[in-house]
Write a structure and sequence with these properties.
The chain is of the alpha+beta class. The chain has 10 helices and 15 strands. The protein folds into 3 domains: 68 residues, no CATH class; 116 residues, 2-Layer Sandwich (Uridine Diphospho-n-acetylenolpyruvylglucosamine Reductase, domain 3); 93 residues, CO dehydrogenase flavoprotein, C-terminal domain (Enolase-like, domain 1, 2-Layer Sandwich).
């Protein structure tokens, strides 16, 4: 069996230097920092993966007794290859802004908007794209971009099993994903062709620092001469809305209603379902005017 790392929570926080002293999880009594998955053994229901920690430490996690830190697994890559862009599970968001990619990959702007819309520079150096995707908030800033660009996710279990799934299948609802207990989002891959698409990103919040109540990303594929949209925040999970060719503004209402049922729109204290549906169409029109088509 591989070597284990067990530390008190206090020692772990000092060693990691990633968390503020005001962030405390009183139920946690064990901290593990494996260098490979084989060190973990059987996953336990009281364990939780720890990547950037920017959300995990913001609210009580009474069911969590052990934190499994991913930082030593070497999953922080942001890799450019002829096949596309690969983002590792612990790659901090800030690298999407600071690292360079091929000049034709103009869709990188949509990923960068996801960073800028979500977090201040203080959080960007710690927070991870994978963590944001696994949290699966309806207002998440990255999931719609990943679906829009036909990303594929690689999922691993502690036992070493692996599977790949389209981004469109990953989030199934508000705070719901297809991840099984112990399964982790290892990496995200965006095809090189998708990275060349022109994109647009619009997000509407009811308050300047609040959660979005509607989010629309859009892309134009110059090869296929088609426009597509991905809708977030107004619905519980990202919805891909595809047009046959280039729609007009007048066609957007029918296009939207044909591919997203009325029952999919959220209705809560932030906004009614009808208002979210209206805003979604407005943002689609703005996105369409942004695209060079």
């Amino acid at each position: 069996m591989g070597e284990y790392t067990f530390l008190s929570l206090e020692t772990a926080m000092v060693e990691g230097a990633r968390y503020s002293a005001t962030m405390d999880l009183h139920s946690v009594d064990t901290y593990r920092r494996p260098k490979n998955l084989q060190e973990l053994g059987d996953w336990q229901p009281t364990w939780a993966w720890l990547a950037g920690g920017t959300w995990l430490f913001t609210e009580p996690q009474s069911q969590v007794q052990t934190l499994v830190d991913m930082q030593e697994l070497g999953w922080d890559e942001l890799t450019v290859t002829p096949t596309g862009l690969t983002i590792g599970a612990t790659c901090p968001m800030q690298r999407l802004i600071s690292d360079r990619v091929p000049e034709p990959w103009i869709a990188m702007q949509a990923l960068q908007r996801g960073v800028q819309e979500l977090a201040s520079f203080k959080v960007q150096t710690l927070a991870t794209v994978a963590g944001n995707l696994c949290l699966a908030l309806p207002a998440g800033t990255f999931a719609p971009v990943m679906v829009l660009l036909d990303a594929e996710y690689e999922l691993w279990t502690p036992a070493g099993a692996m599977r790949r799934v389209p981004a469109q299948q990953f989030q199934t609802g508000a705070r719901q994903t297809i991840l099984q207990p112990g399964e982790v989002l290892r990496s995200m891959h965006i095809p090189a062709q998708s990275m060349t698409w022109a994109t647009s990103y619009h997000r509407f919040c009811s308050a300047s620092a609040g959660l979005a109540i509607a989010l629309v990303t859009a892309a134009y594929d110059p090869v296929a001469q088609r426009v597509r949209f991905c809708i977030g925040a107004s619905v519980g999970r990202p919805y891909l809305v595809q047009a046959e060719g280039i729609p007009t503004t007048a066609q957007l209402a029918d296009l939207l209603d044909a591919q997203i049922p009325a029952s999919a729109y959220l209705d809560d204290t932030l906004a009614s379902a009808a208002y979210r549906r209206h805003l979604t169409q407005v943002l689609m029109a703005r996105s369409l005017s942004d695209l060079p088509c």
